[in-house]
Amino acid sequence: MFEARLNTSQVLKKVLDAIKDLLNEATFDCSDSGIQLQAMDNSHVSLVSLSLRSDGFDKYRCDRNLSMGMNLANMAKIMKCANNDDTLTMKAQDNADTVTFMFESQNQEKVSDYEMKLMNLDQEHLGIPETDYACVVRMPAMEFARICRDLSQFGESVVISCTKEGVKFSASGDAGSANIKLAQTSTVDKEDESVVIEMQEPVTLTFACRYLNSFTKATPLCNQVQLSMSADVPLVVEYRIPDLGHIRYYLAPKIED
Amino acid sequence: KHRQTAITNFFPNQ
Questions:
Q1: Predicted-complex ipTM score
Q2: Hey, how many other C-beta atoms are within 10 angstroms of the C-beta on A84?
Q3: Lower CB density within 10 Å: C or N end of chain B?
Q4: Residues in chain B within 8 Å Cβ distance of A253
Q5: What is the overall mean pLDDT for chain B?
Q6: CB A203 within 8 Å of CB A185
Q7: Lowest-pLDDT range of A18-32, A157-171, A177-191, A227-241
């Protein structure tokens, strides 16, 4: 059987919010080491890769590998019924066609359970090559969200240029053009607010705004976001989930015809 | 003048 418990429901609510914009349904692959999810958006432009380690759960048991296909809109209906500080337990029998979400209030006086039908989803698993990226930028997640939101007013695409000096985000369209430059921060005392750039080679890439904006739904998970870029390959936008795992979004670049 | 590529162009199907 499979059983995974988190002492607060909030983190799974945030994880779900971070993926349900891009994905209508997804398969949660459960094993002894934890829960993995890999899925492309409908248009096959981006890929979501979620990893939740078994040791990050307050209780975790998975006797046999289990693939649970879930409709994320239905899962969201259920997660909406949990208070942030409720204990959450996900449970499924081996070879089951349902999963149960149980929520327990802090004082244990309210216990709710919701059973959801699982789906058989066609799984396309993509191999993500190990790559050394030419530029890796770490910056405040809120700042990245703000930049994506602001620039999407001006065009459908964002150009990201990274050099040793800093990272520049640009957009242009009928209304005009916009450029936001962030320099590497000089002080190291506030790690959460820092902008750090590790550059092997300068990179300039163009990406669709709407996907970047969807990725920023993960902002509540983490103070910092990491952007990894190399010429002519997908961007990686990574949010770490403290003590539990990470969510990585891969976005195919736009290329000049 | 920019064309959107697909993620499957970069990552092989396993």
A1: 0.97
A2: 10
A3: N
A4: 5
A5: 92
A6: no
A7: A177-191
- Tokens representing residue B3 in the block: 């064309």
Pick from A141, A140, A151, A125: nearest CA to A215: A141
CA of A230: how far to CAs of A74, A151, A206, in Å? 37, 22, 12
Q: Which amino acid is at A190?
A: K
Joined together, the tokens standing for residue A143 give: 């700042």
Work out the minimum CA distance from B9 to partner chain A, whole angstroms.
8
Closest CA to A225 of A164, A150, A157, A143: A143
CA distances (Å), A137 to each of A148, A151, A240, in order? 15, 18, 14
pLDDT band at B2, cuts 50/70/90?
Answer: confident
Q: Is the Cβ of A253 closer than 8 Å to some Cβ of chain B? A: yes
The 10 Å CB-count burial string (b at 16+, else e) for A213-232 is bbbbbbbbbbebbbbbbbee
Treating both helix axes as pointing N-terminal to C-terminal, what angle do A72-79 and A10-19 enclose, rounded to 10 degrees?
150
Chain A segment 193-232 residues within 8 A of B by beta carbon are 206, 208
At residue A157, φ and ψ (nearest 5 deg) are: -120, 150
DSSP one-letter code for B7? G
SS3 B6: coil
Q: Which of B5, B8, B9 sits opposite A254 (nearest CB)?
A: B5
